[in-house]
Specification:
Blueprint (H helix, E strand, L loop, with lengths): L1 E2 L2 E2 L11 H5 L5 E2 L4 H6 L10 E11 L2 E10 L9 E9 L7 E5 L8 E4 L8
Antiparallel strand pairs: 1-2, 3-4, 4-5, 5-6, 6-7, 7-8
């Protein structure tokens, strides 16, 4: 992700025929980067709610989604998440942010609405 002039990367080690095969069918596929790795894509600006931490490909909750990313919630579940970091994102709390960080309510680094430039490299 590129935020301002800063570019940050994380590596997702996932064996697959293609990136398309991981996202095209809309099925959730878990990853295990952890919340701090996802937040690192935004440098010191990254913010998530403390609970849920569902991450991977095609991550969804009621009214929020990420093709590749992570969701957070202030509640002790993943039912109605209010935060996300990722690529191909949409929904609450700001549907205009399709790549980056959107979070509202009780997050670990404040409310954020950060649109970023996306880079996805596949090997």
């Amino acid at each position: 992700m590129k935020v301002g002039q800063q570019i940050n990367f994380v590596v997702i080690n996932k064996q697959a025929n293609s990136l398309h095969s991981q996202i095209a069918d809309g099925q959730y596929r878990a990853t295990s980067l952890g919340r701090n790795a996802w937040k690192s894509l935004l440098g010191s600006q990254g913010s998530l709610q403390i609970n849920c931490n569902k991450e991977g490909f095609n991550v969804k909750s009621v009214g929020i989604r990420a093709r590749i990313g992570t969701l957070g919630n202030e509640q002790n579940d993943c039912d109605r998440c209010d935060s996300r970091i990722g690529f191909g994102t949409g929904g609450w709390p700001d549907s205009s942010i399709t790549c980056g960080n959107a979070v509202r309510y009780s997050s670990d680094n404040g409310d954020k609405f950060i649109q970023s430039t996306r880079y996805i490299l596949v090997q």
